[in-house]
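Hey team,

Filing this mostly as a record. A colleague (T.K.) asked me to run one chain through the structure pipeline before their review meeting, and I want the input and output archived in the tracker in case anyone asks later how it was produced. No errors, nothing strange. Just documentation.

Input sequence:
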Amino acid sequence: MQSPTQFHILSFEGPDAYSRAGGIASRVTGLGHALRDAGHLTHLWFIGDPELPGHETVEGLRLHRWCQWISRHHPAGVYDGQDGKQRDLAASLPPFLVDQVLGPHLRVPGTRAVVLAEEWQTVDAVLHLDWLLRAAGLRDRVALYWNANNLFGFDRVPWRRLGSAATITTVSRYMRQRMWGLGVDALVIPNGLERERLRPVDDLTTAAFRDRARGRAVLAKVARWDPDKRWLLAVDTVAELKRQGHRPLLVARGGIEAHGAEVLARAAADGLRISERDGGAGAAGLLAVLRDLEDVDLLVLRSPLSPEACRLLYRGSHAVLANSGHEPFGLVGLETMAAGGLACTGGTGEDYAVPGWNALVLQTRDPNEFVRHFGWLARHPEEGRALRRHGRLTARQYTWNAVVARTLLPQLGLSGRDVGGKGRTRRPPRSVSRAKGVP
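Output structure:
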């Protein structure tokens, strides 16, 4: 039986290729699927591909592609023509929601609704929706939430008005503390993983990966070319490993940002040999580029990595450098754990990382910090296996189904059950402190 509570997710990003630009697309899609699995009718309103249907149901999730008339003039993606889309979303979506969807739903006795909005681009839409619901006498039956995934656009948010209209949430204790300076006391609802990320990586494929890189200390880094991601530290770390005779190989996938040129210049200055290559799709495409690597220290992948290829890269590498200096949540580290890889995180928003239990947590800009960890693990391989094993256990607790059941639904007074997997999982040691709202 379907729940009388209806959910609406408002976001710029969404599941279309046109709408994917970062982690928010994964967040809203995974959140929507988890709410669907929990028995709630769920709508996702986003800036969608202008060539796809305006409204359709895909895998039980109601998709609504907004601003398509603007997107037709901005083919470069969801943030192309951002300001016009933001204004149109704020002006046109709230009246449609109230008149065509929320109003008819809430006229049925015993029903309610929850609106979950993401990032600064939806703030004006939330304020408009709050005003319309009050005017219609429906505000007390709709829970409005607004979530901050990063610090982007904070200078454009009217915090006092937003706090009066909606409950403000964020993705980690670190982000919550960053927002205190703005006078905002946000609730923490962490990011989660799609259950597909927990699918085991094929042993034969992993063996093929490691055979291609035999004798090398393989590190991986997948992130935007952004100084906050500490790419320069990663390059310096590889150079130090090479200086100490470890034969490192950094497999890197960046983005389109200008900082990439600075990273490659630093690598060359450090004496690293660089190869930039295009690959095919999936795990087979990744394996295809891992050839003739004897004279390569830094392999830059120019082609996008599929989820399958990412899982193989994370599991097959000796370590994944997710060592950002500013990370609101750190999804790559959690994805590494889910794949059975060894995550090396920074020390900011990665609430899931327990140093020495399920991850290496790098806290300085000194390349020797990782080099010392690497040498210790080389001498104690059983400890590396334990880190990977505990990482997998941690990732199971961060499926979207588990996150929704543990943190979001109880906030709303709804029953939360984890429909995300089989069996029980182990929690980190009891000595690890956890803030309210964080699993």
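Quick notes for T.K.: The chain is about 40% helix and 15% strand. Confidence is low (pLDDT under 50) at residues 418-439.
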